[in-house]
Structure formats: C-alpha cells, structure tokens
Design goal:
This protein has 17 helices and 17 strands. By secondary structure, the chain is α/β, with parallel strands linked by helices. The longest helix is centred in the first third of the chain and has 26 residues.
Length: 480
C-alpha cells in the first residue's frame, strides 16, 4: 500500500466520520457553544476528534432514560420520574397571588403537581442531620430508600451501615444507591461492606476507573432518603466524617439537610424509584414503596424538582431563571460553587438593576482549587451589575440555599455551576411558605454575620498574575 493511497484512505475515513458526527451534533445539541466546539474538534482533529465525540459527546444517559420510561409505560407501570405522578396538586387559589406565576412555571417544567400540607425541618450540619436520619432508619417498618453521591468509610458510615443492617434484620426492605464515582472517595469502597451485611446496594453508572475525580460527568449527585414513604430527607449532605463537626475532622464541611413530611415525600420516593430501576433493573412495588397519602403534616406548599441530562434537562435552570425574574425585593443565594453561565449572570444583573437586593454568599476558601479560581474571575461580572457578594470563613460551607422575597425557597443538592445545571442528576425541592422561607433566611443571616463583603475594589486590587491565572481557568468554565 503506497503512502499516497494510505493518506487518501485516512482522508476519506476522516471526512465520513466527521460528516456523520457533525450531523449528529447539529441534530441533537442545543448549546451553540458546545456544538461549535465539537464540530471544530471533529474536523480539525482527524479521526481522533470523531472518536472522542462518540465516547464523550453523545448523551447516552438521556437515550437510556427515555427507553426506560417507554419500557415502564409498555409494561403498564406508572412513571416514577417527575411526570404523571399519581397526585393531585393544590388549587391555584391556595397559592399566594404573587407566587402563582412561579407555581405555574414549576408545574410546566417538571410535570409534577405542587403539593400542600408539608412540613419541612432544617437540619444544620451532620451533627443534626445524621442523628435524625439514623433515628428514622431505626424506626422504619417497611422500607428505607437511600441515595447519595458520596458514602465514605469512617465513623459516620459505620453508624449508617449498622442502622441499615439492623433494619434488614427486622425485615425492612432496604435499597441503597451510591454514585459510581462517589463510591470511590474512600478506599476500599463501602459497597462490599454493605453487601456483607445483607443490604441491597447498587452503583449508579459504575465507573471503570478505580479512583474518584470531581470532574467526571453524568453523576448522580442527588442526596435522598425516604423511610416508609412517610418521611424524607434531602439537601447537600453526603455521608462522610467531614460533615460531622463534633468529630473535629481534618477537613470539616458545613452543610444543611432538610427533613420532609407530607405529600411531597411521594415525589421524592418516585425520583428514587426511577433512579433505582435505571441502575439495578428492579422495579420497586408501588403498593409497598408508595403507601397511601398521609394526613397533612404542615402548611408548606412544596414540589420536587428532579434535574438531569435526560427528560428533566434544564428543569432546574428554568426554575432558577423564573425565580429570579419573579423577585421584587430580595434574592439570597448560598452555594459552594458559583459558575453560572451567561444567561443566569445576566438574569441576576437585571434583577439588581431593577432594584432587587441580590446577595450571594460563597466560601472564602473552596475545596476545589480550579473552581475557586474560575469563580473568583467571574465575580466581577455580577459585582459590576450591582449584586452583592460575601465570603464566608472556614470551615468550608457546602450548603445550597436560595430564597426569594422571603416567600419562596429552593433547597436540595444542586450547585450554581454547569455540572449541576447540565451534566449531573440533581434533586431539589421548591417551597412556598413565608414561615419556612424565614427559617432559611435565618440560616443565611447566621452565615452573613460571619462573612466579609467582597467588592469591586477587592476584585481590582488583586495582583495581575492572579487575575490572569483565574481568567485562564475561567475559560474552562463549562467543564469545571
């Protein structure tokens, strides 16, 4: 085979592969920046660029999730995701007049009803959340469903394994779902220990790599626990010793979790059931895992918002944009990672220019160095738009809180970054209740009292080498 013929063959293969990849990109991608980047890569990097797109650029998760939903429908099972839940929503007249547009938006982007009669209890740090979760497991009579991103070995893990094993011994049906990357944050992974105690456990998209990495995509970042279909837990808390501050860990992490009672727990169970079937192939029996609705537990109107690169794509992004547009007096954001894309940054700036008090609380010292650098570079954009930024002192704050006008609150697992809003599976709950929003605002007030303002002057006084470093890393914002 002559060199000229080999070159021609490679060129033909490259053109065919690049044309096929370009066709797929144009027909499936809805982010022009991602589409442009991939098209450039497949044409400018012969053969290798197309191969990279096949392995990294094709969203197999959305296709697989869609097939699972279709399979369930064909089998006569009701969907267990965010759509067609067997629940009735509250009457629109019961929603405060100023929030009805927001409630309508939430219903349309999730397909789930807004439920009334819920009670929501904040649990600060693992010191409050872990005992409440363990007590719920100890009191379980029928079922325990637990999904977490990280389940580290250690003192906290030992307590959860013991409680879950005791529940299994009592005849309780227990299911534990751990993300395939998060399971590898400690060595050896906890999965084997759980199975040795008779606990049914699966990994969500088990990673082929024997190590963890914070930048792997398509992860199940949800933190959910539901006991007997009656009490649920959701928030930002993983299962690891660093979140139990009373242990005085080497790398302490602040966080907030929430305990839910009422109809919204059924939506949390549905989200877990779908993820479980997606990962294990087992369909959870609805008569066992979804008991009849319980009496009203409180006054909070609430709705679960599952989000991920499948049928729920951008549900959370639209919720954030809607809430920002709805704001009339105050927006408060607490997040460990703040890398919103341009449309969210512009929405916050427009709100501030309308006279809304926009306050963003971030950790002064993050746990991911590159994210911290890129985040710092981006702060100038929101500061110039009139938003306020405050930096909270150590220990690292992993809390995710968002309130609007003291009437509406969003809590859950999602950060304000591309990974949470586009690449990972998240679960949040929106709550319509001024009393509950006041409790969340009180948590934010406590953090604000210890924080220091970060101003445009602080941003401009930074040394030029630091600005260049942060700006260069910020260019990789979509991938951080």
């Amino acid at each position: 085979m002559s060199p000229e013929f080999l070159q021609l063959l490679i060129a033909i293969v490259h053109v065919v592969l690049a044309a096929g990849a370009t066709t797929h990109i144009v027909l499936t991608k809805d982010d022009v920046r991602a589409a442009t980047g991939w098209v450039g890569l497949v044409w400018l990097t012969p053969v290798l660029g197309s191969a990279l797109y096949v392995f990294l650029g094709v969203n197999r998760i959305r296709r697989r999730a869609g097939q699972l939903r279709r399979d369930r429908a064909m089998a006569g099972l009701s969907p267990t995701g965010s759509h067609a839940l067997p629940q009735r929503g509250v009457e629109p007249a019961l929603v405060p007049e100023g929030l009805r547009a927001m409630a309508a938006l939430g219903g349309r982007v999730t397909g789930a009803p807004l439920t009334g009669g819920n009670d929501v209890e904040p649990l600060v740090d693992g010191d409050a959340a872990y005992p409440a979760m363990l007590a719920a497991i100890a009191g379980a009579r029928r079922t325990v469903a637990l999904a977490t991103y990280i389940f580290d070995r250690g003192t906290v893990a030992d307590r959860f394994v013991a409680a879950l094993a005791a529940a299994v011994q009592r005849g309780v049906e227990v299911r534990v779902l751990i993300d395939g990357v998060g399971a590898r944050y400690s060595r050896p992974p906890i999965v084997r220990a759980l199975r040795q105690h008779g606990i049914t456990v699966h990994e969500f998209l088990r990673s082929a790599f024997p190590f963890s990495h914070p930048y792997f995509n398509l992860r199940n970042h949800r933190k959910l626990m539901v006991v007997d279909g009656a009490v649920g837990f959701c928030g930002g808390l993983n299962i690891r010793d660093g979140c139990l501050l009373s242990l005085d860990p080497a790398s302490p992490t602040q966080d907030v979790h929430f305990r839910f009672r009422g109809p919204v727990v059924r939506q949390m169970t549905s989200a877990f059931a779908f993820d479980w079937q997606f990962s294990s192939g087992e369909a959870l029996a609805e008569d066992l895992w979804q008991p009849p609705p319980q009496p009203d537990a409180g006054s909070v109107l609430a709705r679960g918002i599952p989000d991920g690169p499948d049928e729920d794509f951008e549900a959370l992004l639209f919720t954030l944009l809607g809430a920002i547009a709805q704001a009339r007096s105050r927006i408060r954001i607490v997040t460990p990672y703040f890398l919103p894309d341009k449309q969210l940054v512009d929405a916050l700036k427009v709100a501030a220019l309308r006279g809304v008090d926009v306050e963003i609380l971030l950790p002064s010292r993050g746990n991911l160095r590159t994210v911290q650098w890129a985040q710092t570079a981006q702060l100038g954009h929101v500061l110039r738009g009139g938003c306020k930024v405050c930096l909270t002192p150590p220990p690292f704050d992993h809390s995710k809180l968002f309130t609007v006008d003291g009437q509406w609150a969003l809590v859950g697992s999602a950060n304000w970054d591309p990974r949470s809003l586009r690449l990972n599976f998240e679960y949040c709950v929106e709550c319509y209740d001024s009393a509950f929003a006041a409790r969340v605002d009180a948590l934010i007030d406590a953090k604000r009292q210890r924080a220091r303002p970060w101003t445009l002057g602080d941003q401009r006084r930074r040394a030029l080498p630091l600005k260049l470093r942060d700006g260069l890393v910020w260019l990789a914002q979509p991938y951080l």
